Amino acid sequence: MCTVCGCGEGETQIEGHEHSHEHGHHHHHGDADHDYGKGAAHAHAPGLSQSRMVQIEEGILSKNNEYAAANRRWFSEHGVLALNLVSSPGSGKTTLLTRSINDLKSELRLSVIEGDQQTANDAERIRETGVKALQINTGKGCHLDGHMVGHALETLKPEDDSILFIENVGNLVCPAAFDLGEAHKVAILSVTEGEDKPIKYPDMFHAADLMLLNKIDLLPYLQFDVEKCIEYARRVNPKIKVMQVSATSGEGMDNWYQWLRATKQLSMIGV
Amino acid sequence: MHEMSLNEGVLQVLQDHAKSQGFERVKTVWLEIGELSGVEIEAMRFGFDVVMKGSLADGAKLEIIRVPGQAWCMPCEKSVQVTQLFEACPDCGSYQLQVTGGDQMQIKELEVE
Hints:
The complex is a heterodimer. In chain A, 31% of the residues lie in helices and 20% in strands. Chain A has helices at residues 62-77, 93-104, 121-127, 146-156, 197-200, 202-207, 226-236, 253-268, and strands spanning 13-14, 52-59, 80-87, 110-116, 132-137, 162-167, 184-190, 210-214, 241-244. In chain B, a hairpin with a 4-residue loop joins strand 3 and strand 4 (78-82). Chain B is elongated, with a radius of gyration of 17 Å. By secondary structure, chain B is an alpha+beta fold. Chain B has a three-stranded mixed β-sheet, covered by helices on one side. A three-stranded antiparallel β-sheet of chain B has the order 4-3-5, with no helix packed on it. Chain B contains two helices and six strands, in the order αβαβββββ. The relative contact order of chain B is 0.25. Chain A binds chain B through residues 1, 3, 6, 8, 29, 39, 49-64, 141-143, 145, 171, 173-174, 176-178, 198-199, 202-203, 206, 232, 234-238, and chain B through 1-2, 5-6, 8-13, 15-17, 21, 23-25, 27, 31, 37-38, 74, 84-86, 88, 95-99, 104-113.
């Protein structure tokens, strides 16, 4: 791990992002050996240890949170509403996004960051709509983090006064912990999944402000208890808003668009 | 699975403090992990040894302090203890709970030399 900018030496790849490190990965420990004894067993005076205690009181995610805070500042300076879309794989996130983009691109400025472990398929699907999109491949990583998104912004350059959708890696666990600087997390759950997902994966539904219950056009063919599902989501997060949508039939999508317009307006006055 | 990244976060904080507080080795790390933080302790321990290998904390001992989950029950208007985010109030059975503690992931203290 590079300690200067925090870049891992992992497999993360951001389209169009050439990452050259001018700073070397040297660890300079001084030329001379300062012999103060090598810890308790080798201390020169009996009973005297070289060990000492250091109080830290720092969050494990403090580095990520610094990157996220920088992203958030950038979003607010440029009037960008950033939304972090989270779900399990196969919930229909990309379909929901492409439909939303096609329906809204004439009235709103939009761009997309796509997070997947491998392939640029999703970014290509988004680019077919004519909207700017950038793919981040996390390699073996299971979530996007604030640092990856910060670098992605340098390349993608979302327009001022726009909405940025960040489609996180399909995973209902890990992305919950990592702030990207977004205004809201939006959880997408499809009715082809179990209605108890909100309590099986509580962290994500606890962290989200809005849940889109997707694929409701399939309800007649499924045994999915919508009321029960919403009740479970509210157990985990009494404040979560819920909308029922179908990205295929278009049902309920107008509510989502109204939410986007209203949230965009609110972000302009810093709410 | 994100416990690996969390450990990388721990290592970054250690490296920063090694510079600012002038130490070269870390022997023990005390982490405070809330019961509602979504962290799997066993995965955290496994990841810790792997991530610290070859670093200033190679072979360091990991001590974990568990902090119980706390929530404010709105109907009862008092603080109650919970172990899961979806739990009901142990007194009134309501789910109108606001998490107030036990969701932290903190590095508390280090033994260094």
